[in-house]
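Session log. Operator J.P. requested a structure for one protein chain; no other inputs attached. Running the standard single-chain path with C-alpha cell output.
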Amino acid sequence: MSAILTMPSINVAELGAKLAAGERIDLIDVRTPAEFTEIHAEPARLVPLDRISPDEVRKSIGEPGDGPIYVICKSGNRGRQACEKLMAAGLNVVNVEGGTTAWAAAGLPVVRGRKTISLERQVRICAGALVFAGTVLGTLVDPLFLIVPAFVGAGLVFAGLTDNCGMAMILAKMPWNQRGAGACSAP
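Structure written below.
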C-alpha cells in the first residue's frame, strides 16, 4: 500500500507577507503560456503543467534546502496536480490556495499582458459547440451523430469525478494557448 502524501498549501495573504518581508520566493505558474501572459503573480515564472518535469524544476531551484517551491495556477486545481507530480519526485512544494485569481483579488503584485480566453471558458465553448452540433446533426441528418453529445457528456462526468479534463489538456496544447511562452517564462 502506498503512503498518502499530504498536500501542503498556503493562502495568498501568507505568501504575499513572505514576499513583502523580503523572503526569496520560488513561485512557478503552471497555467498555459497564454494565461500567464494575460496575468500572473509578479514573482512567478512559467512552467506549464503539460510540460512540467521534476528534473528541470529541480535544476532551476538552486541549492537544496532554500525553501519550498510554491505552485500557482488559476484557482488551485492544476497547482494541486503539479504538486502531486513534484512531490512524488521528492521535491518540497506548496500549493497556493485560490491561485492567481485570489492573488490578484488580494491586491498583490501582478504583471498584466494581452487579454485571452481562459482555458475553462475554452472548454465550455468547445463542449457546448460539440453538444449543439451533434444534437442538430443527430436530429436533422442521422441519429448516429447523437454519439457526439453523449461522448461529450460522458467526458464532462469523468472530468467532474476525477478532476482531470481531457478536453482542457488538449486545448492547453493548441497554438493559441502557447503564444507568449518565450517572452514570459523565466529560467
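Operator note: The chain has two domains: 9-116, 119-177.
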